[in-house]
Every structure is written in C-alpha cells, then in structure tokens.
Write a structure and sequence with these properties.
Length: 259
C-alpha cells in the first residue's frame, strides 16, 4: 500500500452518502496538490471494512473498533477528521442513540429490539452497549443486523427495531438526505466520547511517507475551496494521530449478545 508516482488507490468512504462525495473529491484534489505521488482521485468503489488492508490501497478509512481489535499490526494510523457535529471535541465525538418515539427512557431500552449496523462497529454496536445500562456489558434484547447506519434508522422507522446507535455524522446526513426515515424517531442519549474513524496507511508505509500524508491532509484545510467543501461534509479539520490514540477503546469491549 505504499505509494509511488500516483500509483494505487485511495478511499475515504466511511460516510456513503452520494451528495457529499463531491466535497471529499474537492478536498482530496487539494491533498494531491500537496503530495503528487498520492492517487489523483478517490475511489468510491472501495469498501471501508476491507480496503484498509488491500494491497493496492494507499490511503483508506476504517472504523476505530477493527483498528484496535485486529488491524493494529496491519496498518499505520495517519489521523482523523474533526467532525462538525453536536458533542464533538476536536477529533473526538459521540454516537447518537435514537429510538422509536414510543420508547422514551434510556433505562428502558436495555431489553429492546436493537438495530445494529455491524458487531465490528464502534459507533453502532460498542457505543450502544456502553451507553445503555446492561448486566455484564451485554445486550439482552433481540438484535437485527442491518449493514449500515442508514438501514438501522430505516429499521426503526419501519418498526422492525426500537433503538439504534448511529454515528453522529451519519445521523446529521440522514436527517439531511433521508428525512422521511427520521419521522417517529427521536434522540434518547449518546455514546461515549471516542476518536473519529481513523485514516490509515499500510504497515509498510515509511516514516517519510506517513509524515507527507499527514501534512498534506492537514494543510489541505488551509485551502479555501477544500475547507468550504469539507464543511459541507461536516468535517472541520484533520488531526495526525497514532495507534496509541485509539488503544483506550479496548476498555469498552462489550460482552456477547444474548441472542
């Protein structure tokens, strides 16, 4: 996944909403201007859960939970964006617990039907179990795996689930781009303050390459067009980070689901 002369692919597709792709494309163009050896364009066909360890991928974005569970020796952490959402503090943010309007008190949701995008998701699973009081940090109610935050909200809207934990950036975008799905869905709490999804490079990335990627992704926000575009994607800056900045997430490890 190390780069040379613009070879390989780059992806920043943690938020799969088509209307914000041009914003990321504008930003990446500014990144490429500062590091011409990086791929010239983002590849929107890359699947974030697997692209971070693909042999031809130069830069990728993944979730913080798989990073600390099994990707730590396979990638190098570049950093994270600073989400422009309520509750965010720099590169740290919280997921939003949402429920059907008929489910009110957070304490009552422990045995509720949960919509979960993936058991490998920091925002959708780990944050949910961490936020709702549970015996032995495990979920006791029925669980529906949905595959995405958007589909978790859809499950609530269609009365196939009662509660879900949604990445707060995704939650704002869902309200913007799929407002029909949030009818009858209310915010009932928030998850723990955690680092935003990490941008990563391969374990074989050299120190000089890593420094160059971090510098380019940070300084691209000095460009007016890139900064304005990323504000539309709810990103206010980029912060260089290390794997050590994510290791504390392991303390949130939930127990197995009941069912």
């Amino acid at each position: 996944m190390t780069a040379s002369a613009g070879a390989g692919r780059a992806g920043l597709g943690m938020y799969p909403f088509a209307p914000i792709r041009p914003e990321f494309d504008t930003y990446w163009s500014s990144v490429h201007d500062r590091a011409r050896w990086l791929p010239a364009r983002l590849d929107w066909t890359l699947d974030p859960p697997v692209s971070s360890v693909a042999a031809d991928v130069v830069v990728a974005q993944t979730c913080g939970w798989p990073l600390v569970e099994h990707l730590g020796d396979l990638v190098r952490v570049v950093g994270a964006f600073e989400p422009m959402v309520p509750g965010a503090v720099g590169h740290r943010y919280r997921s939003v617990l949402v429920a059907r309007a008929s489910a009110s008190a957070l304490d009552d949701l422990g045995g509720a039907r949960a919509a979960v995008n993936s058991f490998d998701s920091l925002s959708g699973w780990v944050s949910l179990v961490s936020a709702v009081p549970q015996p032995a940090a495990r979920w006791s109610g029925p669980i529906t795996l949905t595959g995405s935050h958007l589909e978790s909200v859809r499950a609530l809207h269609e009365d196939r689930a009662d509660v879900a934990s949604i990445d707060s950036v995704s939650w704002v975008h869902i309200q913007r781009f799929a407002p029909e799905l949030v009818a009858g869905v209310v915010e009932v709490g928030s998850g723990p303050l955690v680092p935003a999804p990490p941008v990563v490079a391969a374990a074989t990335t050299t120190d000089d390459e890593l420094t160059a990627i971090r510098l380019a992704m940070t300084e691209a926000f000095h460009d007016d067009a890139a900064r304005t575009a990323m504000a539309g994607a709810l990103m206010g800056g980029f912060v260089p980070l290390e794997l050590a900045d994510y290791i504390s997430l392991r303390a949130l490890r939930p127990g197995p689901a009941a069912g």
